[in-house]
Amino acid sequence: MEELASQYEPKNVEERWYREWINSGVFKGDDTSSKPAFSIVIPPPNVTGALHIGHALNNTLQDILCRYKRMDGYNVLWMPGTDHAGIATQNVVEKKLAAEGINRQALGREKFIEKVWEWKERSGGTIIGQLKRLGASCDWDRERFTMDEGLSRAVREVFVSLYEEGLIYRGEYMINWCPRCHTALSDLEVEYHERDGHLWSVLYPIEEGGEGLVIATTRPETMLGDTAVAVHPEDERYKKFIGKHLVLPLTSRKIPVIADEYVDRAFGTGALKVTPAHDPNDFTIGNRHGLQRLKVIADDGTMSAGAGEPFAGHDRFKARKMVVEALAEKGLLVKEEHHRHAVGHCYRCQTVIEPNLSKQWFVKIAPLAEPAIKAVEDGRIQFVPKHWENLYFDWMRNIRDWCISRQIWWGHRIPAWTCADCGEVMVLREDPEKCALCGSVNLNRETDVLDTWFSSALWPFSTMGWPGKTKTLETFYPTSTLVTSFDIIFFWVARMIMMGLKFAGDVPFRHVYIHALVRDAEGQKMSKSKGNTIDPLDVMGKYGSDAMRMTLTALAAQGRDIKLSEERIEGYRNFANKLWNASRFALMNLAGFDFSKTGVDRGDLALADRWILSRLQNTVKEVRHALDEYRFNEAASAIYQFTWREFCDWYLELIKPRLYGHEEGGDAARNTMVFTLDNILRLLNPIMPFITEELWQKIKPSGDLLARAAFPAVDDKWIAPAIEKDMAVVMETTVVIRNIRHELGIKPSTRLSAVALVKDHEEVLETVARQAPFIAKLSNTDITPSADPASRPKSSAVGVAGDVEVFVNLEGLPEAAEWKAKALKELARLEKEIGIFEKKLSNEKYVANAPAEVVEKDREKLEGYIARAAKLRGYL
Questions:
Q1: What is the rounded distance in angstroms from the CA atom of residue 177 to the CA atom of residue 349?
Q2: Is residue 190's pLDDT more than 90?
Q3: Tell me: the pLDDT tens digits for 732-770?
Q4: How remote is the C-alpha of 192 from its chain's centroid?
Q5: Residue 819 has pLDDT above 80, yes or no
Q6: Per residue in 288-321, pLDDT tens?
Q7: pTM of the model
Q8: Cα–Cα dist 20/735, whole Å
Q9: In this structure, are residues 876 and 827 in contact, taking their beta carbons and an 8 Å threshold?
């Protein structure tokens, strides 16, 4: 037998096996297979990205599902790829060029796009290599990119089709504008952060003279674009003003007072300044009342000429200060007060966004949302956990038209052309040579590109060859499961459902599994600024990919965020070493073993063999059920407990006398050991693929790959509840005796005697009597089963194992006298501590004034001291 190294070294294993898996084609999906299909499309990471801990969790869970299904006889396709990430990628390349002294505008659009493609080919695949290091079993031959030729064709087909149906339109509308990125953002791309600001109350004089109206605003610079003041029609304070005109402060313009039910009478003064070009709600009010739209903030965040002198040309925030100062000078600033409110920021660069009036392209989304809502309502798509459906429904039932145009260069350019001679707008599948209306060749191509999420909404079917009718689509669409996080339910999940139903004719996936967030050990969100991030690449380098994967899986409970620390990862590295050493022990005891044998024969099995085989089958059942229900943590826990506690700690110890030839049944023990270890490696392979593949090749040298082997199936004939019950009594009783030895400092080599007292449980008493020799062997203790309390030794230490009270005879043991002296001393110390803490906690003043967490810790200490003292008294 080839002897394993004394410790598992991941770096010696991982790269070698990943290369072997790729070369063997084990990850390939088969378009023509007759096996049942299982497919997943990867949430495409940004081409600019690097693997972070959220990616590690997301892709580990996907990989577990794919490996599990592949082993279970499914034809699996895990479709990989990356997203072109319009704004992010353009920013990366712009910064790189700026460092070389190159300006994007000076370079020109075509040359700039060439530079982006060069960067993408050279540096854009970083995260793919990192996913491979994680062990991701994607079909890499099918890797896609959202700007590949085929995917671009799909994007164009969808855009033109929606335009032809009137579901895409171009119009002037209020959008979110980033002055830094110089592009429109959808509502979902705006992040709101609570900020300290001010609420300024400003007097708008009435034209006819008199008291005027006081308006409260957080953005006084926008008042330069006011075209009305609105009040609620039922507000008695302001009814007399409706229809009159006010003098807009700092200008010579007159603006009307209008009545509109949108106005919140309780906010500020109850009078609302209306700036239709710089606020989405004001825009809606302006449409209802036919108000002028006056733009006073330019696209670069400075005040436009429409703001007038002296404000034009100044930055919007400097202009805010200038406006406040000017109002104060003219005696129109009534009040300035602190006001904390949510301020919108660009999700990419964190610049404060500016609501802006702009001509953009939109998707009329409501007709697409209706069937998407129904698909979840009728169960064709199921969210796991189910409560995420509520978030989905809430957004979908209150959905607004989707602004899909972006004012950048990198992305899918909108396929629209305008004739410079007659103004005809053409949206076409193929580039036109001349105007369809007047025949002019003087055509101007739309300069905007599409929102990145537009192309990723098509991902489940565009990656499979749509709009062609491909064999891949026929075999693998709809996909089986989408694994993602809650924060892109709106960005991506909902839009994929809408587009899949509309263009592919079916839902894009059957299940949506929403995993939790990964937080630090204290439950805080990870961020570089806090310094509490965990880099998965560092973790994999230090502990191995399997340890990180197992940690994330074990903590991935549904509906609960993951609290991750390096100590937890180290713990699962120890589990990998435990499995390694168990396998090493097995191999050291398999000299001459016939590896061509498969399975075990019930005829020659000992109690320990029948027990471990029963526990194995129950574990298989538990793991299968957990994986089928997306309860990844329960699957990991079941394998962990069975492997470490039952197989390593108990079974391998139980069979040592037979393996070493001290007892009969060595062949049965070896067969059972190999069979069980084989199944452990199969069960664990989807979670920890590298170490299990390495060990399986030693335990089952068949010439094939574990990645291709069958996942364990439940075999009910091995499930034996009665044997498990017997072994539970054996194990619990043995543990009690071992604990007493440890507590009293009695050497393992000292032969003890004990009474196992069982009252009113005849069946348990019979089990103890039947298994007494087994317990005696495990604990080096002569066991006397009894139902008579009088049979207990006069001097004994007692422990409880379920329905069994174990009395270990201490008479004549020198360790007992020594321990008794120590115990009396310790008991005296504990009683002193108990007195101190009882006095402390009976002081009402202390309990009322001390921090709650300090008081709670004191209570916990007191409870611990009391429990320890009671235990010692019991022994004494």
A1: 12
A2: no
A3: 999 999 998 888 888 889 999 999 999 888 888 998 998
A4: 21
A5: no
A6: 999 999 999 998 999 999 999 999 999 999 999 9
A7: 0.83
A8: 44
A9: yes
Structure tokens at 636: 């990991």
Alpha carbon distance 819, 827 (integer Å):
12
Torsion angle of the four alpha carbons 27, 32, 38, 44, in this order, in degrees rounded to the nearest 10: 60
Within 13 Å, how many C-alpha atoms sit on residue 154's CB side? 28
Average pLDDT score over residue span 76-93: 93
Q: How close are the terminal C-alpha atoms of the chain, in Å?
A: 52
Chain-centroid distance, C-alpha 354: 31
- Sequence-distant (6+) residues with CB within 8 A of 704 are none
Residues 6+ apart with CB under 8 A from 307: 221, 224, 225, 296, 297, 319
Q: Are 806 and 737 in contact (CB under 8 A)?
A: yes
As a whole number of angstroms, the distance between CA 822 and CA 830 comes to 12
Parallel/antiparallel/unpaired status of strands 75-79 and 37-41: parallel
pLDDT band at 599 (very low <50, low <70, confident <90, very high): low
Residue showing tokens 């607004």: 400
Cα–Cα distance measured from residue 617 to residue 620, given in angstroms and rounded to the nearest whole number: 5
Yes or no: say if 632 and 626 are a contact pair by the CB < 8 Å rule. yes
d(CA 210, CA 415): 57
Task: Report the sign of the C-alpha dihedral through residues 338, 341, 343, 347, in that order.
Answer: positive
Numbers of helices and strands, H then E, in the chain: 29, 29
Q: What is the DSSP letter of 335?
A: E
CA distance 193 to 185: 16
Contact call for residues 772 and 783 (beta carbons, < 8 A): yes
Q: How far is CA 630 from CA 135, 422, 527, 625, 634, in A?
A: 20, 59, 28, 9, 9
Cα–Cα distance measured from residue 357 to residue 733, given in angstroms and rounded to the nearest whole number = 78
pLDDT score at 203: 95
In the chain, % of residues over pLDDT 70: 99
Question: Could you tell me the CA-to-CA distances from 590 to 605, 648, 661, 669, 671 in Å, in that order?
Answer: 18, 16, 12, 10, 10
Residue 815 has a CB neighbour count (10 Å cut-off) of: 14
Q: Which two tokens stand for residue 871?
A: 């235990």
Ranked by mean pLDDT, which of 21-30, 235-244, 828-837 comes out on top? 21-30
Pairing of strands 443-445, 416-419: antiparallel
Query: What span, in angstroms and rounded, lies between the C-alpha atoms of 450 and 409?
Result: 10
Q: What is the mean pLDDT of residues 594-620?
A: 85
Average pLDDT of the chain is 92
Q: What share of the chain is helix, strand, coil (3-state, %, to 5)?
A: 50, 20, 35
Q: What is the DSSP letter of 492?
A: I
**CA–CA dist 28, 79 (Å, integer):** 10
- Beta-carbon contacts of 529 under 8 Å, excluding residues fewer than 6 positions away, are none
pLDDT of residue 180 exceeding 80: yes
The stretches of 72-108 forming alpha helices (DSSP H) are: 86-99, 104-107
pLDDT in tens, 131-155: 999 999 999 999 999 999 999 999 9
